[in-house]
Design goal:
InterPro entries: EryCIII-like_C, Glycosyltransferase_28, UDP_glucos_trans
Protein name: Glycosyltransferase
Strand content: 5-15%
Number of helices: 14
CATH topology of the largest domain: Rossmann fold
Organism: Isoptericola peretonis
Shape: globular
Number of domains: 2
CATH class of the largest domain: Alpha Beta
Order of helices and strands: EHEHEHHEHEHEEHEHEEHEHEHEHHH
Number of strands: 13
Helix content: 40-55%
Radius of gyration: 21 Å
CATH architecture of the largest domain: 3-Layer(aba) Sandwich
CATH superfamily of the largest domain: Glycogen Phosphorylase B
Structural class: alpha/beta
Pfam family, one: EryCIII-like_C
Distance between the termini: 13 Å
Strand order of the largest sheet: 3-2-1-4-5-6-7
């Protein structure tokens, strides 16, 4: 049995996959602690891990960031993403380091395995010289040869003009992230560390081991992924729900539906229903489909009457829903996309900001999704995209190919295998 400290940013899209890995490690007999915000301590305790709550780090509620971080409003776009990076991810890292070092003083660990966006993980590992692995619920898509800069949602270009485009955009991207790299170096000094040679693209990931959700096949073709990166598919453990999520009262309508089932979700981050949920309901109201909307844990009930072919619930259990789903309409949240593909479900993706334009671009490039190229699509574009995906079998065939790759990578069990191997090698 080993002592393992994991870290998880207190967001649903990060905590749930890391919880699944923690649960698998507990099942194998390891003593697992998880450093996370108080809103998720019970969830980790439910799978047998020992939660360690943020103390020096300013804890927050993902339903209202601005209470803790006044500059973080419910705004969208690149400028707000920069604020999020500066205030939340970089800004809390020195205090995270303080908490983690205190936890190690009280009870040393054998391995630190962290959420890439919990930057205090990196700083604590450097202070202690302890074995360190990244467990990434987000896509590992670093900059590389032959692809445009990450964050723009552009597919690879072709020909001399395309290569020139990517070179110009790459230079602009490097100049843009230089400011954030300087902010990172200042943050290191606040955490009691000397400057290093890391760039803003590389600071989040362990140079020893990266265990990443997803697969090589979801990325563009490339040959420059480091050898220490291990893809493990979908980090979802459907058996960890305690108790199992209840089916909504209208579930028989789904189970018996002869019309195609279209699942609509905006995930757990940007959840304003006017972005995607309401336009999708309008778009599909007169289509011969059954629309199943999952609002998530942050969205209030929808006002007004629903179209007759729509069913809405805060949460709809994916193990029951996705095997019956013909297409998922989504904002491109990585966890939901992976679960859809794991069930061979093609997608319509409205990726607005953060990593979602990149997810939409890649799935559209592969042919498993229609990329709407906006986070706020018009109803007519959603309607046309759903018709295209449901009528062209190539979308489901591509989703099934990618899903088979994801399923074959082993998920949480493979993640635990890699972490155990890293423990053995380190000791």
């Amino acid at each position: 049995m080993a002592s393992i400290m994991m870290t998880a940013m207190p967001f649903a899209g990060h905590a749930r996959p890391i919880r699944a890995v923690a649960g698998e490690l507990v099942r194998r007999g390891h003593d697992v602690r998880v450093y996370t915000g108080r809103s998720y301590t019970d969830a980790f305790a439910d799978v047998g891990a020992r939660p360690v709550a943020w103390e020096a780090a300013p804890d927050f509620d993902e339903r209202d960031y601005a209470v803790t971080f006044p500059r973080m409003q419910e705004a969208k776009g690149f400028r707000q993403v920069l604020v999020n990076l500066e205030d939340l991810f970089l800004g809390t890292a020195p205090a995270q380091t303080t908490d983690l070092l205190a936890a190690h003083d009280a009870e040393p660990w054998d391995l630190l395995a962290g959420d890439p966006m919990a930057l205090g993980t990196r700083f604590a590992a450097e202070h202690l010289g302890s074995p360190w692995a990244t467990v990434s619920p987000i896509a590992y898509w670093p900059p590389g040869k032959g692809i445009p800069p990450t964050g723009l949602g552009l597919p690879p270009a072709r020909g001399p003009l395309g290569r020139m485009r990517d070179a110009v955009l790459g230079a602009g991207s490097r100049a843009g992230t230089a400011t954030l790299t300087r902010r990172y170096q200042r943050t290191r000094r606040l955490a009691g560390l000397a400057s290093d040679a890391a760039t803003f693209d590389s600071i989040w990931y362990s140079p020893q081991l990266v265990v990443s959700a997803g697969s090589r096949g979801l990325d563009y073709p490339r040959s420059d992924i480091p050898a220490h990166v291990r893809f493990v598919g979908d980090l979802t453990d459907d058996g960890l729900s305690t108790p199992p999520a209840a089916l909504p009262e209208w579930w028989d309508d789904v189970a018996r539906s002869e019309a195609p089932v279209v699942h609509v979700t905006q995930g757990t981050a940007n959840v304003d229903p006017t972005d995607l949920v309401l336009p999708a309901l309008e778009a599909l109201a007169d289509e011969e489909v059954l629309v199943v909307v999952g609002l998530g844990h942050r969205t209030a009930p929808l006002a007004g009457p629903l179209p007759p072919n729509a069913r809405v619930a805060p949460m709809v259990p994916y193990p029951a829903l996705l095997p019956l789903t013909s297409v998922m309409v989504t904002n491109g949240g990585y966890g939901g996309v992976l679960q859809a593909l794991r069930h061979d479900v093609p997608l319509v993706i409205a990726g607005g900001d953060l990593d979602k334009p990149e997810i939409a671009a890649r799935l559209g490039w592969h042919g498993a999704a229609v990329n709407l190229r906006t986070g706020t699509p018009r109803p007519d574009r959603i309607r046309a995209a759903c018709r295209e995906v449901t009528s062209d079998p190539r979308y489901r065939a591509t989703a099934a190919r990618l899903g088979a790759e994801l399923r074959g990578l082993g998920g949480t069990r493979a993640a635990a295998d890699h972490l155990e191997a890293h423990l053995t090698a380190a000791h």
